[in-house]
Amino acid sequence: MIISHYQTNNVYELCDYLHIKILKNDLGQATGVLHYYNAMPLIHINSKANYKDYYIAYILGYFFFNFNPDHSVLFDRLNDEKSNVFASELLLTDELLFTDLNTIKSLTIEEIANFFNLPIHAIRIKMNGVPNSKVIFSYL
């Protein structure tokens, strides 16, 4: 729904449309932080993290499903299932998979994750039957 509404799955463009500022900082072991400052939602993403787009997408999912603007949230683990599904579906669309099907059909899960620059668990979410995704991976 969000992709069709904003005509993009690019997390930076989505944040622009939603007036969410993204800041990159060295956050140590944390992946990111979500909070409000002067009535503006801010995402701090760890500048040293791999898969920054995935982590931003995950935090966006958390923003939509769980966020309370009165509380800041530190992300050191990605354990919210809805946010993981949101990030996986946002960044690894069925259309994208169909477009690259001939390239990825003989790859391992690790190689597919590397091909799309996503963590392995994002690929597993698609493979494990998120609606409308089983069909794609049944061809692999």
UniProtKB/TrEMBL annotation:
Superkingdom of the source species: Bacteria
Segments forming domain IrrE N-terminal-like: 15-126
UniProt-recorded name of the protein: Zn-dependent peptidase ImmA (M78 family)
